[in-house]
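Quick look at the format.
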Amino acid sequence: MCGSVRSKDYGNDVLAGDWRRPRKGQIPEIPAERDLVVEDPDSGFCGAVVGCDKFGVTLEDRFGKRRVFPLAKAGFLLDGKPVTLVRPAQAPQGPRAPARSASGSIAVSGLRARVAKESRIYVEGVHDAELVEKIWGHDLRVEGVVVEYLEGVDDLPAIVEEFAPGPERRLGVLVDHLVEGSKESRIAARVRSPHVLVTGHPFVDIWQAVKPRAVGIRAWPNVPRGVPWKEGVLAALGWGDDVGEGWRRILGSVNSYTDLEPELLGRVEEIIDFVTAP
């Protein structure tokens, strides 16, 4: 186990010398089994293994913060000694479970791009579109449904009219901050068509639909009125002032549907069902 204090002064122990380039067989290879506790010696980050794939191993510390590290040779410390983590071998016994996509659905192997259907899903902004793509992209490619972003919903009624929805041309719209009495709810109420579903989540911004623990924070900060929400969040978290970089940090922490709030999950699944219904 690793303590809360880290020192790079290891003295004349096993870390002395060029331990990053060990002789063959000198550093043991350890399967990155779930709950194995290791330390990254460069950053001092210590945590339990919660996932491992060809891209690297995901560690979670005792505060719930997660980080991904490459499976480098002699890249970790186990009980203070260098080890090489490798992907665990799959158990040979029993039927093999079907592969799952990031949304939790059964992944379709050998998928080829399908001709897009006329039905569409509209979201408010590019961040919304990127998050939907990361979690539901596989499902949408299977169905042949395209996601587009609107840069706001102020002109939603006119956009819907221009889209010309019909029985074979359905439209699903995902709206941020769709709560009673909000501007967004009043705009959504003006759209009336059996071939259009306008629904949404209660969060001020799609950032909030990512669970705080996935990002490594206790909670999303409260931003005072009059302060742009994204900029206020960055300032409160000490993440600088680059909104794009902040979003890349958030999106990079999302690995599956379990990293998202149920209020978003349910609405996106509802929209996908609506636009793909026979």
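Next, a different chain entirely:
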Amino acid sequence: MTAAARIREAFDEAGVTGRLHALDIDSGAEIGAGGDQAVVTASVHKLCVLVALHEEAAAGRLDLTEQVEVPLEGRELGPTGVAAMLDPVRMSLRDAAYLMMAVSDNTAAELLLGRIGLDAVNATTARLGLAHTYAVHTFRELLATIKEDAGPGGAQALADPYVIARLRALDPARTNRSTPRDMTRLLSAVWRDEACTAEHGAAIRRLLGLQVWPHRMASGFPFDDVHVAGKTGSLPTLRNEVGVIEYPDGGRYAVAVFTRAASTAATLPPADAVIGTTARIAVEALRGA
């Protein structure tokens, strides 16, 4: 059985529709399973925000040590970072970027988007040749569409498959989108210092390595000498992650996995775990090629 067939079988067994692309950053060898199909990025798009932020800094249009005030008013809802804090906060732009990437803090992401603008994010992805990657909404706007589309039933309505079917946030034609191949291309550019200067590329890689969630891609590589750096993304029924797996022999592999579950359950361990399972199948195939 080919690696692509094994990947599709793993998605089926986990009860998800999955799309994957994996790329050997140095040789260019690749494996795909729906790698060119449009997908909803959710918080994976924060990687694009991060790269755009560092482009702005490299061009001298902002200082990453600039201090910003984050009042209580207007914060995005969320269980992590500033979004979950109870008091006013003052921090640097680069510390906001850390919170955006490490714990997927929506308030920090909005703060940074307020500083650089959505147009800068789209200009960055266009410059890097990511023709299928585009941000339609800020994260505040994205969450607002879910609230509006869910209707008076609120968050509880998101357990209803009929409500899920009408969410604009789950339709790549109407929300922030990309393809798995575009995302591995972006990761490769970051790791090869082609997205930004070497100094800023190193800063981006550092933040991706500080993500706290080990239950998706990293679960497929439970080895002390293998490093996984990535960014997750989640919305109702959607579980995604893009990242780079680095081996002690110097091998480095960009992998992007996007899934949508048939179940509307908020907690679905097999759907999380299959991201690591399929990433490992793909990387092992690339290493054996």
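Residues 269-288 form the longest helix (20 residues).

See the schema section for token definitions.
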